[in-house]
Amino acid sequence: MRLTYTSDLWYKNAVIYCLDVETYKDGNGDGVGDFRGLTQQIDYLHSLGITCLWLMPFFPTPNKDDGYDITDFYSIDPRLGTLGDFVEFMRTAKDRGIRVIADLVVNHTSDQHPWFKESRSSKDSPLRDWYVWSDKPEPDDPSQIVFPDKENSIWQLDKKTGQYYLHSFYRHQPDLNVANPEVRDEIARVLGFWMELGLSGFRVDAVPFLIENVGDKLPDPHAFLADLRAFMSRREGGAVLLGEVNMPYKDLVSYFGDGNGDQLTMCFDFIGMQRAWLAFARSEAGPISQTLGDRPKPPKDCQWATFLRNHDELTLDKLTDEERQEVFDAFGPDKDMQIYGRGLRRRLPAMFGGDLRRIKMAYSLLFSMPGTPVIFYGEEIGMGDNLDEEGRMAVRTPMQWSQSGGFSDAPPVRGIPGGSFAPERVNVADQKRDPDSLLRWFQLLIERYRECPELAWGDNTVLETGHPSVFAHRCDADGATVVAVHNLSDIAAEIDLALEGLDGCVLTDLLADETMEVADGTVRLPMSPHGCRWLRAAPRGDMPPEDASIIAH
Ligand code: NOJ
């Protein structure tokens, strides 16, 4: 495998780090994170090894949905800085080789957006058709209500004109009508604007809602995604659309553009994520093997984005009721930890009771899975949640830089976790000095992941381990092979792995100082409780595997 591929198709083995400017680092002492603060932390992100930042919405907003309710797509929320600060940030990130993508939230706007104010002013408004209006909407299907704690319909009567407007999310977030060509043009203009300022693409919010709300008003709603992708690629060949599409695999593939791969460049693997949590709850490999077994291969040049947690609830909506209950019982038994009847508002380390071995194994598994890993700020130091914060905000607390918090000198925008996840116990400064810390583990995983591009996009095969708790898979590309083995349980195990075509090879454990040989086509592997191994295969007597990982492809 040629290393040059990994620069053209940079996103296929990128390491994406999601953060909210508001909660990352306060640069002006007002208790709210901002672009100046974030810019000062770029070297931290660079030393962590991440290659792409995903910024959550940073646009002007009444902030009723943490910025996912936008009033101006062409500007910066004044609490977070100015366009000048943004450009300085972009320049610094670029200097450190870090790409930046941002949330593209165009399924809806805030109801305070001037477009909506104009649209709702009269049935004859020139912008009336920019939103979705109806005299008498269809009765609601309860499964369509995304936030059942706050809403009981996706239609809201607007008294002034006597019509209802569609809102797939909160009632203060009216859906844009992308069947209207002027709206589609405006969305393209938004993309073009931020690309001129250096963005390498977008995380596209709520994609199925975006194209489904046009119903039968467009002959092919997916053509809108293809048009958007084509527009973006004309402007910048390497730019990407990373889509939020939480759907069964069979329905999801069409969002890549079926066989053509001309719509979303990447899609989050929500199904794989949910099955990983089922596997953790059971300490069993089965659900993960199932993912690799039935997850479709993305079309050429497309990629899966893998993750364990994000800024939203840990949604378990695609598990059966019984499976979801298993995960609730294991990781969120209290009602207060659960949300919307389908998810958990917790961070992973808290769910694992702070068990460092288990936490390290989970992230090792994430980075070894075929796809591009996406991590949420604070995961790299094992931040916990703050259940005193409302709803999903429990996992969006300020980044913990030092024992005193280090986020801001002023009272922070959101409450900081206490107890065993308080900044005194969990912070960047301490973990930088500790060779066994989670932060150091992430640095190692990222370095190794980048050295092994076959993990991200090679051909992968699930291997028989003969042990229900041990998951093993191999990734092959152009004659290079990496084998990854993970023990999901807290009991040690020993497994025999048959490794076809690797007889006589030396396996170097890239996460530990150890080598072993494949004899008669098999290798015996002791696995410690929650142990993990990434094994690079090289013919005996070949060049040192460390170098082989880069050059031998
Ligand atoms: C998905 C985002 O991830 C979520 O945080 C937001 O509330 C909804 N879309 C609405 O924009």
From TrEMBL:
InterPro entries: GH (IPR017853), GH13_cat_dom (IPR006047), Glyco_hydro_b (IPR013780), O16G_dom_2 (IPR045857), SupH-like_C (IPR054049). It holds the Pfam family SupH-like_C. CDD domains: AmyAc_TreS. Signal peptide: none annotated. SMART domains: Aamy (SM00642). SUPFAM superfamilies: (Trans)glycosidases, Glycosyl hydrolase domain. It comes from the Bacteria. Residues 18-414 form the Glycosyl hydrolase family 13 catalytic domain. This is Alpha-amylase family protein. It comes from Nonomuraea roseola.
